[in-house]
Amino acid sequence: MSQVMPDWSVLLSTCPSRTSLARIANKWTAMAVSVLGSNGRMRFGDLRTQLDGISGKVLTETLRDLERDGLVTRHVHAEVPPRVEYELTALGFTLHAPLLALCRWAEEHIAEVLVNREIYDAR
Amino acid sequence: MSQVMPDWSVLLSTCPSRTSLARIANKWTAMAVSVLGSNGRMRFGDLRTQLDGISGKVLTETLRDLERDGLVTRHVHAEVPPRVEYELTALGFTLHAPLLALCRWAEEHIAEVLVNREIYDAR
DNA sequence: CTGCATCCTGCACGATACTG
DNA sequence: CAGTATCGTGCAGGATGCAG
């Protein structure tokens, strides 16, 4: 029963929703949620491979923040070597489409953006 | 004619689309594009008022980056006091829905997120 | 394999003052 | 009003090493 709060606006610096916006609107979150939403439950190491270039520390922090906000669940297996899997929650999945759209936008429009940049810089 | 480049992936650290993703996936860009897309052409000062808490410097930089990438156009009026207006381009408008969706998500789910955080922190 | 601790660097961002 | 210039600060995030 998530209620819409029309008087809560990300535009207000005092509104906690802005903090939430800052968390979801960043490249690592966008990439992680997109990959998790597309692939389903994934291991830490596989996520790290997919998110090419991310450091272990940053991936851990990103996943922990997502878990804290209830967007991701962490499944620890009592094995050795350890195996930990991550999965989007129902709430987290509501973010999948919007964030995947952002990733897609970057991929689909990068050529046009690069041309615009050249034009702009040529003055 | 923006071509989809299926071999360009934000997941690759070497792909320029990731830089583009990093630019559009941040709170100030999300807020600015959402407001510009909803309100149409706007003055610098009005944008600054809407984006509560943003400094003049950061707003200038945000708008300049958007202009450079061809997402926003800058209209300078030869008046005194000066009047400068900003407006989304057609390309910029393709970002409006996705970024507005992110802002809306933050507003609509902040209550649930805050509850999850309390539960998580209570251990 | 997963993840934590430590250290370090760069940049995002804010504050302030000044100009056309 | 709409910037620019300058400076200061905090934090994101990378590198490395160690632990369970």
Features:
homodimer; 59% helix; three-stranded antiparallel beta sheet; Arc Repressor Mutant, subunit A; mainly alpha; DNA-binding; 6 helices; globular
Task: Give an overview in words.
Chains A, B: This is Helix-turn-helix transcriptional regulator. Chains A, B: Residues 15-114 form the HTH hxlR-type domain. Chains A, B: Keywords: DNA-binding, Transcription, Transcription regulation. Chains A, B: Pfam families: HxlR. The first copy, chain A, is mostly helical. The first copy, chain A, has one domain (17-122): Orthogonal Bundle (Arc Repressor Mutant, subunit A). In chain A, 59% of the residues lie in helices and 11% in strands. Chain A has 6 helices and 3 strands, in the order ααβααββαα. The first copy, chain A, has helices spanning 16-24, 27-39, 44-50, 56-68, 90-93, 96-121; strands at residues 42-43, 72-77, 83-88. In chain A, strands 1-3-2 form a 3-stranded antiparallel β-sheet. In chain A, a hairpin with a 5-residue loop joins strand 2 (72-77) and strand 3 (83-88). The first copy, chain A, is globular. Chain A starts with 15 loop residues before the first helix and ends with a helix. At the A-B interface, helix 1, helix 2 and helix 6 of A face helix 1, helix 2 and helix 6 of B. Chain A binds a DNA duplex (20 and 20 nucleotides) through helix 4.
